[in-house]
Amino acid sequence: DIQMTQSPSSLSAFVGDRVTIACRASQGIRNDLAWYQQKSGKAPKRLIYSASILQDGVPSRFSGSGSGTEFTLTISSLQPEDFATYYCVQHNNYPVTFGGGTKVEIK
Amino acid sequence: EVQLVESGGGLVQPGGSLRLSCAASGFTFSDHFMDWVRQAPGKGLEWVGRPRNKGRSDTTEYATSMKGRVIISRDDSKNSLYLQMNSLKMEDTAVYFCVRVSNSGSYSFDYWGQGTLVSVSS
Questions:
Q1: Chain A: nearest CA to B92, how far in angstroms?
Q2: Phi, psi of B6 (to 5 degrees)
Q3: Which tens digits make up the pLDDT trace of B63-85?
Q4: Helix, strand or coil for residue B77?
Q5: Is B63 in contact with A95 (Cβ distance < 8 A)?
């Protein structure tokens, strides 16, 4: 199975901060990676797919980059509604595997 | 509008069985892979599996941790996805989400249901 390692597992930041979340795959997955945002008690919402393509309707402060084994999700200016848990997931190979999540909290 | 509605969750004793259903609408069901994803209380997301599409030679794929205890199937005539879980353990307690797999270049999950809670407890 491909292991997806997300870091950090949690972070505290101020509104307006630039935030970066990393995701590392245990083997190359090309750009077969997506990022999801999940708020408490809700289903996850896709933010980014194919590593860097912004989902329709998602604010442009979100961006994704990377290919192969190293990926990042960046929030250029953190907003109050962005406090949530973020997950990466690879769909290059079965089984599909998720990162452990990054909880973004208010400082 | 794409809608995915799960049902069938509830309280079950360890060793028991449960069958979850997902009713899909608002899109051509047979055009998409459909998966199950679960989330234990306070934990991260875990992929459960993906059923064989009718008329295709794809195999049914399962998470390593679920193999042998679950059967995922679909009925394209009913726009429905199913998850049969057997020999349930307390660690199977989770919200189970039905998810649609995008078919436009990326095979990521583009729509999620609201989830159904399965609680395994004596």
A1: 17
A2: -85, 150
A3: 888 888 999 999 899 999 999 99
A4: helix
A5: yes
